[in-house]
Design brief:
Elements lengths: L1 H29 L12 H5 L2 H10 L2 E4 L9 E6 L6 H7 L6 H4 L4 E6 L9 H7 L2 E3 L2 H8 L6 E6 L2 H5 L8 E2 L6 H9 L2 E8 L6 E2 L6 H14 L6 E2 L19 E4 L13 H22 L12 E2 L1
Parallel strand pairs: 1-10, 2-5, 2-7, 3-4, 3-5, 6-11
Antiparallel strand pairs: 7-10, 8-9
């Protein structure tokens, strides 16, 4: 009798769910390259992301505009810091819930992230509907070469390698050797914009503060081979466990968007020209941090550390 029940349950499961699974697999295969081709943003999803509304209320997340970004130019916006889950960048640019398009009229916002995120069924669709695609030169070119100006694509420059090093109260940014975004900006004539998320590194704690060397090496190996790495993090517990849980630590999250650095189109820049533009970007980012840090409780002695 038990076997009959189990077999009946198995047949019912296969009968009802197999067509959906097979249909999704066919769709997954058909659209496998879409994350690298501008994805498929949905204004409805971006404007009705209730989970981002909850997140905004939880973190009291605000976007702070410091300068105009005219819609007759394209932009690459550098997001710093990455943090463990990149909450600030995703909430600001992959959702309209915090007023990004109201503050910057005429801009169409995009975000790019590691390609490994688009290997996860259903998650890939939610990311693409939000205007997120894979971080690749080809994808950036497709976005920035659209007929309409006003394309603003944001990148968490430090990536997962920076994320696994993040910890509350620290401002370590993997930026010193990250120059690919500068080369793309120069080749496409897109202005560079620094953006800093105050409170990003305070939303979670790594398992052991700054992760031990072996754990960091293991995570870096996973990132290199799979395109992303599940973070080792500790947040708050919903039931009061002393060792914490997975709920983000409730902190004040502010996204401060800086002034654009004008970039002239140069399809074949020399290394010296790239280095000069990269230095200008780093200086503007540090200036943005120093100008606003006192407003968000950052001690005067704390500085950005570029590595």
């Amino acid at each position: 009798l038990i076997l009959i029940v189990l077999h009946s349950a198995l047949y019912a499961h296969v009968f009802f769910f197999a067509p959906f699974v097979l249909s999704y697999l066919a769709w997954f295969f058909y659209s496998r390259r879409w994350p690298e081709r501008g994805c498929m943003p949905s204004n409805f999803v971006r404007s009705n992301s209730f989970h981002w509304q909850w997140a905004g209320d939880y973190f009291n997340h605000r976007i702070v505009k410091t300068a105009e970004l005219p819609a007759d130019r394209n932009y690459i916006v550098g997001a710093h810091p990455h943090g463990l889950l990149c909450i600030g960048m995703t909430g600001s640019f992959a959702s309209d819930m915090f007023g990004i398009r109201e503050q910057y009229k005429g801009l169409k916002t995009w975000s790019v992230t590691l390609g490994g995120h688009f290997l996860l069924p259903l998650r890939r669709e939610s990311l693409m509907w939000a205007g997120m695609g894979a971080t690749s030169k080809q994808n950036l070119q497709l976005i920035l070469r659209q007929k309409e100006k006003g394309q603003a694509v944001t990148i968490a420059i430090g990536g997962c390698n920076e994320g696994i090093m993040s910890a509350p109260g620290t401002h370590r940014l993997k930026l010193a050797d990250r120059k690919g975004f500068v080369k793309v900006a120069m080749a496409e004539g897109a202005d560079l914009v620094p953006m800093f998320h105050f409170g990003e590194n305070d939303t979670y704690r790594p398992v052991h503060g700054i992760c031990p060397k072996r754990l960091r090496n293991a995570q870096a190996h996973i990132v290199k081979n799979f395109g992303f790495c599940p973070p080792s993090l500790v947040g708050e517990s919903m039931i009061g466990l002393p060792w914490g849980g997975l709920v983000p630590i409730r902190t004040h999250l502010e996204t401060v968007i800086g002034e654009a650095i004008h970039v002239e189109k140069n399809t074949n820049p020399s290394q010296e020209e790239v280095d000069k533009m990269h230095t200008a970007y780093c200086e503007k980012l540090i200036e943005l941090f120093e100008t606003h840090k006192a407003n968000y409780g950052v001690p005067p002695e704390q500085r950005i550390i570029l590595y």
